[in-house]
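Subject: mismatched residue count in predicted assembly?

I count 641 residues in my input, but I want to confirm that the predicted structure covers every chain. Input:
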Amino acid sequence: MGDGNSADAPLIELIGVTKTYGEGAAALQALRGVDLRVEQGEFVAIMGPSGSGKSTVMNIIGCLDIPTTGSYRFRGMAVERLSRNQRALLRRNYLGFVFQGYNLLARTSALENVALPLLYRGESVSRRHAAAREALAAVGLSDRESHMPSELSGGQQQRAAIARAIVTHPAVLLADEPTGNLDTHRSREIMELIATLNRDRGITVLLVTHEPDMAEYARRIVRFVDGMVESDRPRMEPA
Amino acid sequence: MFWNTLALAIKEIRRNLMRSFLTVLGILIGVAAVITMVTLGNGATAAVSERIASLGSNLLMVRPGQRLGPGRDSAGAPPFKLADAQAIENQIGGIKAIAPTVSRTITVVHLANNWSTSVVGTTRDYFTVGNWRLAAGRVFNEAEQRSGKAVCVVGQTVRANLFGSENPVGSTIRVGRFTCEVIGLLVSKGQASMGMDQDDTIVMPLRTVQRRITGNQDVRMLLVSVSDGTPTSVVRRNIESLLRERRHITASEDDNFNVLDTREIADTLSGTTQVLTLLLGAVAAVSLLVGGVGIMNIMLVSVTERTREIGIRLAIGALEREVMLQFLIEAVVLSTLGGLAGVLLATVGSIVLTRVMEVPYLFNATINILACAFSAAIGVIFGYFPARRAARLDPIVALRHE
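Triage response: the counts match. Full output below for your records.
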């Protein structure tokens, strides 16, 4: 993969990105010209009502989808010009995903779940397990290695999912409503964990949420309305 | 990557053990059926050849009347005489032995036991021609043959029915209206082709049967054993031309006798069983194909069921071909397991069935390897479509799948 001028380019840059689903009369414009820059090490919360396009923009940033028009540059690389496989390699090497529904593999131990991304990097079993143990320790789940997802609480499942996202030491962590299924207490724990990863490891975090409380953990808040950026500002410093 | 994927496939199969087993069952039965059918068919072919060989080697059977078949009639044809046999023996080369025979089914009695059997009148050469060996006693000698003495050699089935396990040699039996001394006992030959029991027989001098049973000088069949190294076709042609001459058949007339070559019968019969083997194998192969459809079906279900899993794998960076390989390997592992289990089942089944059917068990490596390879190929062919479907899933859609 040609890296281009990765040193100078911002980590993530959306230039006039639009996304249209369907065609003709049934066409639905999810994004109507989005410009967004995210630098290495930022912690950005993307907020907005449902249907505002925040999930669409996350899918594009996550290289799961490509813009209809406009450009998405990851480290200066135009993602919309990459093939499906090249985008998969990009996800494999630079991105970590955390979903609202945890999305762990059923009937597969926490350790195996966390080690999964390394399988696709062709790492040996011993190295996979060592790295997975390390990641589980980082999220405080060392004693749950051999548990199946069904034997873990929601908070623990989300921790395991975060461990899976960071096991490859990604540049960006993409978290789509990570606390959507959790109570306030667990939500705060998860957000603390994500904030710690951002602070201590320098992982760039993009967080989609509609809960202002959770967005408070970010250092920058981008609001989406009707497929456009309504506001983009640093979080008000807490007292 | 390959070994990891293989391990993954085995893990997946073990996770759904019951379903995997039921999926494999189709392939298992298909492979087992193909191998068993072919093995049994080969055994039957071998058995037929063996039994025809037991009739005698290089044997020609000369009978009056045209060859049996639709619209053919042997009733009008004149029988042979002993002189015909002597003429053939004296005038044609390459003949090891010739036995003129006449036979009748007749009831024989010993004490309280009676048994209906085939009584054969012939010469001493009969034992050479038919590969008969003696278990006890002796065969009749030249003098007994010439005088038509009431002596006989009995087969094992006759012995069993008249004497039980006793030695019959030296006893007398009543054959129709006369009494006959048993001088010898034949070694068992077992079943001949077409369910004929070769041991259900009594052999007497030709003269004895002609005088005391049939009441004429007719000979019904000439058994000719050809010397090793002499082509039976040559001897056969010579016999035909000699007999045409002796029976005054003009060039425009058909033969009123026929010469049957046992090798020809063997070839015809084993040809028939081979065709049947092929046919049964083909039918069984269809069931193997159905097993493949079963694998495709279950793999499609599996892809749908695991849509979310596929979405996760794609999201964390699995390539299309890696997902494809995973499902393809799963299908191939399933079908190959089925194939191997099928080979095991077929081996056990074939051994048992060959015992029951009393045909020899012949291990056929080719068909075993072929069936295994074919089952693996079925995994590839029927696994390809579901695997491709999995690999082409849109990760966003797949992740949202419930």
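Strands of chain A lie at 12-21, 28-38, 43-47, 69-74, 77-78, 95-98, 172-176, 204-208, 220-225, 228-234. Marking this ticket as 'not a bug'.
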